[in-house]
Write a structure and sequence with these properties.
mainly alpha, 9 strands, elongated, Glutamate--tRNA ligase, Rossmann fold, Glutamyl-tRNA Synthetase, domain 2, RNA-binding, ligase, two-stranded parallel ribbon, about 425 residues, Arc Repressor Mutant, subunit A
RNA sequence: GGCGCCUUCGUCUAGCGGCCUAGGACACUGGGUUUUCAUCCCAGGAAUCGCGGGUUCGAUUCCCGCAGGCGUCACCA
């Protein structure tokens, strides 16, 4: 059986894009599933558009997602170099070949390939037979007047030389394919197999745009999406697990991958489901691991072992790691209350009896706190929910918090009593107007 | 405009001629558990399968038109 080799060929013209990751995922999975090799090649022949540092960022983002490559600009390989700007000599040599065969000619400083005489047809791996009339494949530039090859020319030469067996790319390349096939034919080279997966769409159903859509992989990291979750989500766009599973690892994706389960229609990149998936992954992550990755989303000097104590309290409350800060900051920062937040007219009573109950707790643990507070609630006939809301407000200054008794255990008796006292004095001062 | 690709609940999708009075997931709504929020557990609404013709005993599934959407028409990739 022929050797399977796939590739992703990003241009270092900016940040790492979800579309790049999406395509990388399919190529990676197809290669791995079929015992093949996955290659990354940099297409940097447009000198003006190259951006400093983009190469590094793209590679870093892909490996953050857990995608690995067998050959590439950083790791090297038998077909080195993997950067088109370093392969200029190769292209020059190949142009000569076409010039000699009289299949290409010079025109205004550039070199053009003569268009196709025949209709161009190929059997697309994902879409079936696709035909373009010969009239659509006119003469086109293969070497620019600055001496650099155009995209079409460099792609074909590199894919051939790097023995790429399956060219799997986005559907926006469908109309490029006839020209590239014409090039293969001009050289007399064997055609690779082509497969065109759908492009990701924005809410407007147009292809993802830098302006309107969240497409920078770095942003996802900053927002606190786990790479495993993002990958999982991406896998679900245009592809579905044969058993209908929604949550699975990249390894499982590879095991189950096949091109015939790839849909043709372009999916809308709607991150609502990503949030759910991310939550699922957060809940599956161990506390220790979660602490490590949450740390970079916490501002302030919060020790790791402290985070380890509170992380279980918010684990099932977070969809994104970036929410940790808001959920936890009351632990290391006394809330700035205003009287308005204590809406319950019984707030003061709640606080007074909580104060008494908690002052009397000898051994400060959850069991004793529960017991002390429970007795007070019964005795004073408080409504449990209301009572705890007042307490929650006193501790955290907000209505949405981790479980409050557990939180108080961690906060410590002194701090808890201190906050109750402060909250009380705010209420007292409010309820004692000047008339007094 | 030419050429090409695509078209199932709001979104992601299953479906490859009868099992579909179209299944699942997210989101949404209602309920239960619960000290808030979540988690978890039930229940529910939600697609006349873009439209019109065929083929067939029978079409979401096959064929042909049309419409709409998207892509592409660079010395960008």
């Amino acid at each position: 059986m022929e050797k399977i080799r796939t590739r992703t060929a990003p241009s270092p013209t900016g940040f790492a894009h979800v579309g790049t990751a999406y395509g990388a995922l399919f190529n990676y999975a197809f290669a791995k599933k079929n015992n093949g090799k996955y290659i990354i090649r940099l297409e940097d022949t447009d000198v003006k558009r190259n951006v400093e540092g983009a190469e590094k960022e793209i590679l870093a983002s892909l490996s953050w997602l857990g995608i690995t490559w067998d050959e590439g600009p950083d790791s090297g390989g038998p077909h080195f170099p993997y950067k088109q700007s370093q392969r200029l000599e190769i292209y020059k040599e190949k142009v000569k070949e076409l010039l000699n065969k009289k299949l290409a000619y010079e025109d205004d400083g550039a070199i053009k390939l003569k268009g196709s005489q025949d209709d161009i047809v190929w059997e697309d791996l994902i879409r079936g037979s696709i035909t373009f009339p010969a009239s659509e494949v006119n003469d086109f530039v293969i070497v620019k007047s600055d001496g650099y090859p155009t995209y079409h020319f460099a792609v074909v030469i590199d894919d051939h030389l790097m023995e790429i067996s399956h060219v799997i790319r986005g559907e926006e390349h469908i109309s490029n394919t006839p020209r590239q096939i014409a090039l293969y034919k001009a050289f007399g080279w064997e055609l690779p197999k082509f497969g065109h997966f759908p492009t990701l769409r924005g809410a407007d159903r147009k292809k993802l745009s830098k302006r309107r859509d969240p497409v920078n992989l770095k942003i996802f990291r900053q927002e606190g999406y786990l790479p495993e979750a993002l990958v999982n989500f991406l896998c679900l766009l245009g592809w579905s697990h044969p058993e209908g599973k929604e949550i699975f690892t990249i390894a499982e994706f590879v095991d189950n991958f096949s091109l015939d389960r790839v849909r043709k229609a372009g999916p809308v990149f709607d991150t609502q489901k990503l949030d759910w998936i991310n939550g699922e992954y957060i809940r599956k992550t161990s506390d220790e691991e979660l602490v490590k990755i949450t740390l970079e989303h916490i501002t302030g000097d919060v020790p790791e072992d402290f985070l380890l104590k509170v992380i279980p309290l918010i684990k099932e409350r977070m969809a994104k790691l970036s929410e940790a800060q808001g959920l936890l900051e009351f632990f290391w920062q006394q809330p700035a209350w205003t009287k308005e937040i204590f809406e319950d007219p019984k707030s003061l009573e709640h606080l007074a009896s909580a104060n008494i109950a908690l002052s009397g707790v000898k051994v400060w643990d959850l069991e004793n706190i529960n017991k002390a507070l429970g007795e007070k609630i019964v005795k004073n006939e408080f409504k449990t929910g209301n009572f705890y809301m007042t307490l929650r407000l006193a501790m955290a200054g907000k209505r949405i918090t981790p479980p409050i008794n557990e939180s108080m255990v961690i906060l410590g008796q002194d701090q808890v009593l201190h906050r109750i006292h402060d909250a009380e004095s705010i209420l007292v001062s409010v309820e004692s107007p000047e008339i007094q």
